[in-house]
């Protein structure tokens, strides 16, 4: 199955099985056509965490070799989280196919699982695999200050009204 065929199926399945609060759709090109290889998504902050109340934008870029190879997922540059590089790229084993380095990517993983995995990473950062030293150090040294910083960031990304 080609990447495009798989992404057409992903889009149909996402529309049917989208978890509450999650948004995901392919980008529309300037000419009005749909680019299935680039999605703009939003992930709601997990309840009962400092992330709650925010709805965080994530760009997902699927390679031509998808689903054999994972997509690249990115928050906006400068996003504050221990496992997000300063560029915004998400560092998550689910999105890595290098099994020797702990990568857990499998071609059966779908967009819902990817977005839910990133949501889980928000509330459960991996301090043993930091992509952003300042966020990681603050979390380790002063968790309350970390939580305050996360709550401030959440205000930048308010949850939109529920949309289809």
UniProtKB/TrEMBL annotation:
<keyword id="KW-0833">Ubl conjugation pathway</keyword>
<keyword id="KW-0067">ATP-binding</keyword>
<dbReference type="GO" id="GO:0016740">
    <property type="term" value="F:transferase activity"/>
</dbReference>
<dbReference type="InterPro" id="IPR016135">
    <property type="entry name" value="UBQ-conjugating_enzyme/RWD"/>
</dbReference>
<keyword id="KW-0547">Nucleotide-binding</keyword>
<dbReference type="Pfam" id="PF00179">
    <property type="entry name" value="UQ_con"/>
</dbReference>
<dbReference type="InterPro" id="IPR050113">
    <property type="entry name" value="Ub_conjugating_enzyme"/>
</dbReference>
<feature type="domain" description="UBC core">
    <location>
        <begin position="2"/>
        <end position="159"/>
    </location>
</feature>
<protein>
    <recommendedName>
        <fullName>UBC core domain-containing protein</fullName>
    </recommendedName>
</protein>
<feature type="active site" description="Glycyl thioester intermediate">
    <location>
        <position position="91"/>
    </location>
</feature>
<dbReference type="GO" id="GO:0005524">
    <property type="term" value="F:ATP binding"/>
</dbReference>
<dbReference type="InterPro" id="IPR000608">
    <property type="entry name" value="UBC"/>
</dbReference>
<dbReference type="InterPro" id="IPR023313">
    <property type="entry name" value="UBQ-conjugating_AS"/>
</dbReference>
<keyword id="KW-0808">Transferase</keyword>
<comment type="similarity">
    <text>Belongs to the ubiquitin-conjugating enzyme family.</text>
</comment>
